[in-house]
Design a protein that fits this description.
Layout: H1 6-39, H2 52-73, E1 80-87, E2 93-99, E3 107-108, E4 111-112, H3 113-124, E5 132-138, E6 142-149, H4 152-160, H5 174-185, E7 194-200, E8 216-221, E9 228-229, E10 231-233, E11 240-243, E12 249-250, E13 260-261, H6 265-274, E14 278-281, H7 291-298, E15 305-312, H8 317-344
Parallel strand pairs: 2-5, 2-7, 7-8, 8-14
Antiparallel strand pairs: 1-15, 3-4, 5-6, 9-13, 10-11, 11-12
C-alpha cells in the first residue's frame, strides 16, 4: 500500500475503537431494555423498540462502513501508471576506493581517519549532485560496498556506514583493491567518463603500485607523518583501547608495545604520479578535497541517461465512496423510515 504511514495506523485504530465502543454500547443498551421488559412485561407495549432484524441489519451496516473507511485511510493501489522521461543528465561516474583497514581508526588531530574521510565526502556531495557514485572498500581483500547510484541520499547512508571492521580479512592490500577496481571499471556498470578517488593512509607493506588504471585518479591521503595510535572498540565484548603489536587493547598511551601508524606519503604520491593523478592530504587540509569538484568540472560528461518512474494510482475512493453511501443510507434514509413507521404505525 502506498500510504502506509504511522499516523494512518493510529487514526484507524482510534476509529476502530470508537466504532467498537459504539456497537458494544448499543448492544448493552438493547440487552438492558430486554431485561427490564422481562421483569416488567406490562412495559413491552410502551417501549418503542426497533425490531431485532432491523437492529441486526444496522449493526452489519455500521461494521461494513467502518471497515471500508479504515481501508480507505491506507489508500491501497490496484493499478499503476508507468511514465518514462528521457533526461539529458550530464555528469561523470565517481568511484571511491576506500581503505577500511584498522589503521584507518588511528586518531589524528582528535578525529579517526575513517571519520575524517566520511566528513569530507559528505561535505562534497551537495556540489556533485549531477554525478553517479560507487564505493569499493578494501583491507586484506576488496569488496564492492556501494554499486553505482545517482541517489545522493542513498549514497550518503553508504558513506555513513563505512567502518574499519566491515571486512574481516585484516591488513592492507592496495594491489587487490585496484584489481577489483579494474574489473569494475571494465564492466557495463560504469560509464565511459569516470574518475577514481583512492582514500587511504598508504600503509601497504608490499607497496606494490598498480600497473594500469583506465580512469582519472585523485588520491586522498589520510594521516600525519608523526603517526598516531590506533584506537578500537570491540563491539562483541564492549572493550576499547589502543591496539598493541600482539593484538591486545590497553588504555595507556605510554606502553612501548602500542602500534603507531603514519601516512606513507611517498608511496601515495608515486601512485598519483604514475597514473597522472593528483594527491592531497585531507587530514592536514580537508578543503584540499575540493580538487575533486574542480577536476570533474573539467572532464567530459556522460550524457543521455533515461530514467523510468512508476507511479501508483490512488485507490482510496474505491472504499471511501461506498463507506459514505452505506453510512448515509443508515443515518439518514433508514433512520427516516424508522421514524416514519413509528409515527404512522
Amino acid at each position: 500500500m502506498k500510504n502506509f504511514h504511522l499516523e494512518y495506523i493510529i487514526l484507524s485504530a482510534l476509529f476502530f475503537l470508537t466504532l467498537l465502543t459504539y456497537l458494544v454500547r448499543k448492544l448493552r443498551d438493547r440487552k438492558q431494555i430486554f431485561s427490564i421488559i422481562y421483569k416488567y412485561p406490562n412495559l413491552e407495549n410502551s417501549i418503542d423498540l426497533v425490531p431485532k432484524r432491523i437492529f441486526q441489519f444496522r449493526m452489519i451496516l455500521w461494521g461494513l462502513g467502518g471497515i471500508l473507511l479504515i481501508i480507505s485511510l491506507f489508500n491501497p493501489s490496484f493499478r499503476s501508471e508507468q511514465s518514462q522521461d528521457s533526461l539529458d543528465l550530464k555528469g561523470v561516474d565517481i568511484v571511491f576506493l576506500v581503505d577500511v583497514s584498522l589503521s584507518m581508526n588511528a586518531d589524528d588531530n582528535g578525529s579517526p581517519r575513517i571519520s575524517r574521510l566520511k566528513e569530507v565526502i559528505l561535505s562534497l556531495l551537495p556540489s556533485l549532485s549531477s554525478n553517479r557514485f560507487g564505493i569499493i572498500t578494501f583491507a586484506g581483500t576488496p569488496f564492492l560496498y556501494c554499486p553505482m547510484t545517482s541517489d545522493i541520499g542513498a549514497f550518503s547512508e553508504y558513506v555513513r556506514g563505512l567502518e574499519t571492521d566491515m571486512i574481516p580479512d585484516t591488513g592492507t592490500n592496495i594491489g587487490r583493491g585496484f584489481n577489483k577496481l579494474d574489473a569494475f571499471l571494465d564492466s557495463d556498470k560504469v560509464f565511459k567518463n569516470k574518475i577514481v578517488v583512492l582514500a587511504t593512509d598508504g600503509e601497504d607493506y608490499s607497496e606494490t603500485i598498480p600497473s594500469k588504471l583506465n580512469s582519472d585518479l585523485i588520491v586522498f591521503g589520510l594521516g600525519t607523518t608523526e603517526g598516531s595510535l590506533i584506537r578500537y572498540k570491540d563491539e562483541n565484548t564492549g572493550m576499547s583501547g589502543y591496539i598493541t603489536r600482539d593484538g591486545k587493547l590497553i588504555n595507556s598511551k605510554d606502553d612501548s608495545s602500542l602500534i603507531k601508524t603514519s601516512i606513507n606519503e611517498p608511496f601515495l604520491k608515486n601512485i598519483a604520479r604514475k597514473h597522472n593523478g593528483e594527491y592531497v592530504n585531507i587530514t592536514a587540509n580537508p578543503q584540499s578535497a575540493d580538487i575533486l569538484i574542480s577536476k570533474i568540472n573539467e572532464m567530459e560528461k556522460n550524457k543521455d541517461r533515461q530514467i523510468r518512474d512508476i507511479l501508483k494510482k490512488d485507490g482510496y475512493h474505491f472504499f471511501l465512496i461506498p463507506a459514505f453511501l452505506i453510512l448515509f443510507f443508515d443515518f439518514v434514509i433508514l433512520e427516516w423510515l424508522i421514524f416514519k413507521s413509528r409515527k404512522f404505525g
